[in-house]
Write the structure tokens for this entry.
Amino acid sequence: MRSDRLLSIMLLLQTHGQLPASDLADRLEVSVRTIMRDVEALSAAGVPVYTVRGPQGGIALLPGYRTDVTGLTADESRALFVLLSDSAHADLGLGQALGSALRKVMAALPAPHRPDADLVSRRILIDPVRWRGTPRPDHPAPDLAPFQQAALTDRRLRLCYRHGRDNRVGTYTVDPYGLVNKAGVWYLVADHDGEARLFRTDRALSATVLDQPARRRDGQELTDVWQTLRRRIDDIPAPLAVTARVRNEILAKFLRIHEADLAPPALAESPPEPEGERGWTKVELRFRSLAAAQTLLAFGPDAEVLTPEDLRQALARKAAATAALYNPRQNT
């Protein structure tokens, strides 16, 4: 749309100073003639834009002219403030820089957009680190509309929820703090009966926004409650040490799937092996239980558990039972 292009011209000139008309045309993917018509329209609208002729010429704004219009829509403003977890920026040494940058962006936002942007920054969080033993999601995200509505309007939410361990179904009225995307899996962080709880949104059979204000604990924000819940889960020990060898052809895929299960150092030194047995890499892992470690069987003959012996036996039994299902002689 032309209004977007006019605003883009102002922002480019404001950021870069004088620019040739050809440069503006290339950036905005229009002709030089279109740029010149746009400049005339800006001038007619009272924007102090002018052209400088000659080899070093171009288009510029009068010195000192600034516009407080960022060009961001309401949705774009909110999107900027859906933040990565603080730890992700701190790991890069960018924690203070992030806060400073966001304050500057907030100040530059159109005034009507600032409350929504601030609210989103306190209600939605992205944490890119996957939990140990949790596979990457391979299904589409659930409908987040009722969760988002409850979080952003400070309303209570009634959930019909199926628990993951035993498939038990319960009904809960909760007070949301916000939503967290944990490595692709969306969670609702909320209080239930005054205690912090975590609900996977894809396990909700229904979610209804109630016409009642949320009753969150005073002084608690999403980031605070999330850190408490995250530590509880991260601190669950993973006592089962597993050594496996993986064919180099699928090593990258293996490490990607089991990145959260790798024990430091992730890759052990591969000892010399007999001729014909090369092409493997030894990997050290940690699992919370024998059952959790049996997911390694999914790699078939491309990954072999070396220790512990009880896991090897468990995998052998499961592999034999699976083979029996597909053995036509045993099924007749």
